[in-house]
Amino acid sequence: MCIMAKHDTVPIIVDCGLEGDAPRKQDHFFYPVMRPHWLEVSWQPPQNVSFAIIFTSKHAVTAFQQSIFTKTKQNKSWQNCISFGAVGATTAQSIQQQLAALVAHTNATILLPSHSNGLTPLLSLMQATLQPDVQFFIFTSAIGKSADTVTAYCKHHNRNIAVEPVYTLENILESNATPFLTKLFAQPRPSQQHVLFYCRSGQILKQVVHNLLQFFNLEYPTQLPSFIYFFPWEQSAQQALSELNLIDRTTS
């Protein structure tokens, strides 16, 4: 990861995410701006049909384990589960750790894309790997882009895919967010050093920008101090950066 060539000083890196997450590296700051909230779900494993379960995040795995599997673990239809899908390595690790009993019981494989993380590459992999009559169930956030991704995918592929929201995200109160920003910007730094906010999703990025505007008492994102930059990871974060007119505050 690097700032655009015109900036030579190593930036202060702030990993932004959900409460309970951790920074990607020890020398990074971590800024929690939202927290997951599990939804009440009545989903049951289908009878007399082979199916695969797909998770779009580690939080989806946790929500599934707490809201669904704990209530249905005795259901004999779990024997029809032939595969688990994970959008990335972290999600796959969560499946192995939190659903170890289910994985062992079903003897199902865990599939994850090898070249590019994300739901679309995962669906393509599972489409190519599993039989056409296998039903797909995607467990995800209620406010993410999964439903749109599935709709676009299904237009070009003959596959039965259901999207099951199992959690949503709540903003952390600004009163709890302000102390972190106060501490962060009190850090001594060279005049040319930038503060880089790493935001995985569009929703996280928008919340970070909102908090920064409140902290600096500004009206528009383009008014943010010139030393503030963003690293958008997912496509939704890149889109959010464009919507906020902050493309010139990104990295390469």
TrEMBL record:
GO terms for molecular function: uroporphyrinogen-III synthase activity. Residues 52-172 form the Tetrapyrrole biosynthesis uroporphyrinogen III synthase domain. InterPro entries: 4pyrrol_syn_uPrphyn_synt_sf, 4pyrrol_synth_uPrphyn_synth. GO terms for biological process: tetrapyrrole biosynthetic process. SUPFAM superfamilies: HemD-like. Pfam families: HEM4. It comes from the Bacteria. This is Tetrapyrrole biosynthesis uroporphyrinogen III synthase domain-containing protein.
